[in-house]
Amino acid sequence: MELILTRNYHPEGTSGSLFDGEQLVCSTIELPWRENQRMVSCIPEGRYELVKRYTKKRGWHLLVKNVPNRSGILFHPANDALKELKGCIAPVSQVVGPGKGTQSKIADSKLKTLVFEAMERGESVFLIIQKAKIV
Q: pTM higher than 0.70 for the full model?
């Protein structure tokens, strides 16, 4: 499975749309692009493997592997990138401003269900991050 995340960059935050083929899975919010600096920037565009991981703090969640010069990049719920994220990606039901969204827990659950089912079928799951095309 390959998920495509198309991003729109703004000084206050990054907003995106996450697709499985032509199907929109959810929207996303992230920190602004700040040259891939730890804790303050979204991660670089590219292709990354997603794996299932468990921690006491977050339960089962998705880990983004092999991010250049970064580690611990997750998909997890958040509705305000600047206040709640340190480089991770938050699924949201709706983007309401740059780096801000709504109903993140619902979107996160939907994404995990889709990805975990693919993993249970033995599929590898990859995330392709790219800049949104201007139409």
A: yes
